[in-house]
Amino acid sequence: MLRIEGLTKRFGDKNAVDNVTLSIPKGEMVGVIGRSGAGKSTLLRMLNRLADATSGSIVCEERNVTTLKGASLRAWRRDTAMIFQQFNLVGRLDVLTNVLLGRLNHRSAALTLVKSFSQDDKIRAIAALERLDMGHLLAQRAETLSGGQQQRVAIARALVQEPKVILADEPIASLDPRNTQVVMDALFRINREDGITVICNLHHLDIASKYCDRLIGMAAGKVVFDGPPLALTTEIAAELYGIEAKDAGAEALDALDAIAASEAQRAKQNVA
Ligand SMILES: Nc1ncnc2c1ncn2[C@@H]1O[C@H](COP(=O)(O)OP(=O)(O)OP(=O)(O)O)[C@@H](O)[C@H]1O
Ligand SMILES: [Mg+2]
């Protein structure tokens, strides 16, 4: 369970994240939605401590994340794996080595210096790649892969970190629709099979609604919606996306209609 209380991040005279209070139970798949500049990335970065909060607290299982230092901060970062829009792989290294980099913070400083990975590390890395259907490409240089393949390698790297939480910042923003589905399916499977909490920033409401148990809608740093996708109304969708994204709003409402229809269908089948 992650408890976020009064979390604020100020840049100059502007609150990028403004007094956010949330509880996220273990194993939930959460989508953070909202227009550009709403504060989604800043929130995620504070959760991983890539950015420090101006005020407020983050507590996870008795750990006060906002004040961690040294070894305990490193342990927290291991527990919260980040996935980025631009994949952040080392292009000239092969796929397997990129995944092994996720094991670095499980090893002693001395072993890290000699850059030798144990057999156990390698077995884990290969298993993670196979799970993402990428085992056959383990010797290929990362920079030669397609975007969807690179993101799957980044997810494998996150997995070998053995995290409790995966924080994904727009993981599909650079992908085509087919790869979007492959990557979101992978995150969903990891969430359901391993019980890893997934918190995912997403621009597109239709994708967020399809995959997430819960949506957190942000506008100007504040949480303006928190609930299951079906509870999102037209008014809130409009508030979340505003005039910036008339199309995204229309698309989102179509998606909500589709979800409502499939829920109705399912309910009918359950009755029958
Ligand atoms: N390092 C920084 N210095 C100054 N302002 C910043 C910094 N990082 C973020 N901001 C500002 O904080 C606000 C929230 O930014 P953030 O990147 O969290 O938004 P976002 O919801 O992730 O947007 P996007 O959908 O475009 O990724 C924006 O107004 C942004 O300009
Ligand atoms: Mg962002």
Automatic annotation (TrEMBL):
One CC-aspect GO term: membrane
Key word Nucleotide-binding present: yes
UniProt signal peptide: none
Annotated GO MF terms: ABC-type phosphonate transporter activity; ATP binding; ATP hydrolysis activity
TM regions (residue ranges): none
Keywords: ATP-binding, Cell membrane, Membrane, Nucleotide-binding, Translocase, Transport
InterPro entries: AAA+_ATPase (IPR003593), ABC_transporter-like_ATP-bd (IPR003439), ABC_transporter-like_CS (IPR017871), ABC_transpr_PhnC (IPR012693), MetN_ABC_transporter-like (IPR050086), P-loop_NTPase (IPR027417)
CDD domains named among the record's database cross-references: ABC_PhnC_transporter (cd03256)
Domain named ABC transporter: residues: 2-245
PANTHER family hit by this protein: AMINO ACID IMPORT ATP-BINDING PROTEIN (PTHR43166), PHOSPHONATES IMPORT ATP-BINDING PROTEIN PHNC (PTHR43166:SF6)
Family affiliation: Belongs to the ABC transporter superfamily.
Name of the protein this chain belongs to: Phosphonate transport system ATP-binding protein
Record organism: Bosea psychrotolerans
